[in-house]
Amino acid sequence: MTFAKGRGYLAIPGPSVMPEEVLRAMHRTAPNIYEGDLVEMVAGMIPDLRRVARTEGHVAIYISNGHGAWEAALSNVLAPGETMLVLATGRFGHGWADMARGLGIELQVLDFGLRDPIDLDQLETTLRADTAHKIRAITVTHVDTATSRRNDVAAVSALRDAVGHPALVMADCIASLACDRFEMDDWGADVMVGASQKGLMVPPGLGFVFFNDRAALQRAGMERVSRYWDWVPRSQPQFFYNYFGGTAPTHHLFGLRAALDMLMAEGMEAVWARHAGLARAIWAACDAWGREGALKLNINDPGARSHAVTAAGLPTPMGTRLRDWVEAHAGLTLGIGLGMAEPGSPEYHGYFRMGHMGHIDATMVLGMLGAVDAGLKALDIPHGQDALGAATKVIAASV
Ligand SMILES: *Cc1c(COP(=O)(O)O)cnc(C)c1O
Question: Whose C-alpha lies nearest to ligand 1, atom 4?
């Protein structure tokens, strides 16, 4: 028999669960793209996007996934042959770096591995050694979706300022935006990239690049920027089509409007607190499972864990077997272990991830934990008891 016939739960780190409000907003006939509702709605969305990102800066929207937002951001501030410093704490720092490589940008990479934080001493040494100021930008992944490490973007900017280095700080918030607290202006990020399909609860297809005046100045000094990626017309549109460099992503925009309404009604502080509390419940369950068992969270320091995604390990191949079990028997889809081991290697099957970004509540998270608990039992994977009790205790104590 199977218990998987119900409303399936996609608990992977993006795309995330879509709210009914978003689905309903998208279910409509095609709108006029020259005047009327759509045109008025988009102008009103820009201030709300800024509120989500905590910036007074500018925003350019692209019809793209996160990779497109990565390329868009790089294209505006780094010319071929210029140098970018990459701070990698998992897979996604290398992903952004690879987009830069494709644009002919020179790379300097500080790789801190899959479990360790950014070493600020190493960063300081690197910036001080760059007396000619060849490094034009520093990229940092706010939340690395593979390792579930959350990096201290404010510390990177503060160090850059303390050293007196002019490089832009560019943050990848694709996983974390509207899940983990991010204060673009206060934390000194000059450029930030996001995408629609994670904390913003909209299908994949919209990329966002937020940037401040410092970054705009660096853009102004570029010899050329590809017309399509250029953030100038998109952020200061003369005509409606300038926002999107062509036809607007009509239905995604209606979905995004609904999602922003939900975020604004809840309030960003409350959104972040909800994600933080649900993440703590997940960690409490994982700690309980791990106490007499083999389940291990990837990031030891709770202060450096994402509130949007949790990476965990089991003795191989139990990561894959657990994922298969909960999908087949409980209607729960967990994320694969990404970047922790080579696909195809035996170790690859020792990891999995829980996505908890966006439209999630305590019932969903406790359901996910319950399904994982059942899977551990069904597969005879050694695990500590009362993980659900540990999680419900966190929920009960947090309200
Ligand atoms: C998902 C993600 C990306 C890539 O986004 P795509 O939409 O898959 O191109 C980049 N960075 C981070 C941190 C992500 O979580």
Answer: 66
